[in-house]
Amino acid sequence: MSAFAGQVALVTGASRGIGAATAQALAAQGAHVVLTGRDTKALEAVEQAIFDAGGAATIAPVDLTDADGIARLANAIAERWGVLDILVHSAAILPQLTPVADIDQVSFTRAITANVLASQALIARFDPLLKKSKDARVVYLTTSVATAARAYWGAYASSKAAAEVLFDCYGQEVRNISKIRVAIVDPGATRTAMRAKAYPGEDPKTVKAPEVVAARLVDLIGEQFASPHRERVNQSS
After folding, report:
1. Residue 107 · residue 155 · CB < 8 Å
2. Domain of 175: which CATH number?
3. Can you tell me the distance from the alpha carbon of 114 to that of 160, in angstroms, rounded to the nearest whole number?
4. CA distance 29 to 221
5. CA distances from 40 to 14, 59, 194 (A)
6. What does the CA dihedral 187, 188, 189, 191 come to, rounded to 10 degrees?
């Protein structure tokens, strides 16, 4: 039996990396996956891969810095399915790594908008649909620098830390009044475009593939866990 047959999943950042791998893994387990991201052609490629594997998916190109775009996406899902069972929020922007004193305000504002404000907007817009699910799961992908400060990572780390707190609070707020369960997951070192940007000299073969993280996320979504749940995906996971 497919673990998520009949369920609707939304994956942000689904055009590549962990988001794309997770979307394909969820579809392989029977979920109808709504793929969102900014790169339409990349989303179409992921959608086609899901179709080729016998799964179901719908692309919904959205720039998460556009609050109206998130609202339109929520309305579209509400009209078509009336419920959201799974939300995996993997999208994020990595601003330039630089000393705090040298942070560019324009790029920092964009990171705050994409990483923090969009996270709150997703929660606000999809909370009603998640509450209609019989067993909703929300997974937020964080980073180790959100809780362990590191020089030159201030802009990214602070934006991810703020979003992490939002999901933690949300998990506490809904755990006793709904079936929604929230997991905050640090994927650890993973072979992604963002990782390559941050560590340009690193051999990508020395870190795990996105599919390793995706497999763990799909397993976790199928588990019964106390909310909010926290974990890190290790190389051997």
Report:
1. yes
2. 3.40.50.720
3. 10
4. 11
5. 10, 8, 18
6. 0
Which helix (H) or strand (E) segment is 121 a member of?
Answer: helix 118-130
The CA distance from 94 to 115, in Å, is 9
**Tokens 């650890």 belong to residue:** 188
Digit-coded pLDDT (tens) for 168-208: 999 999 999 999 999 999 999 999 999 999 999 999 999 99
As for how many domains the chain has, the answer is 1
- Please say whether the beta carbons of 186 and 231 come within 8 A: yes
Range(s) of the domain holding residue 180: 8-232
Round to the nearest angstrom and report the end-to-end CA distance of the chain: 23
Q: What is the pLDDT of residues 71-96, one digit of tens each?
A: 999 999 999 999 999 999 999 999 99
pTM of the model: 0.96
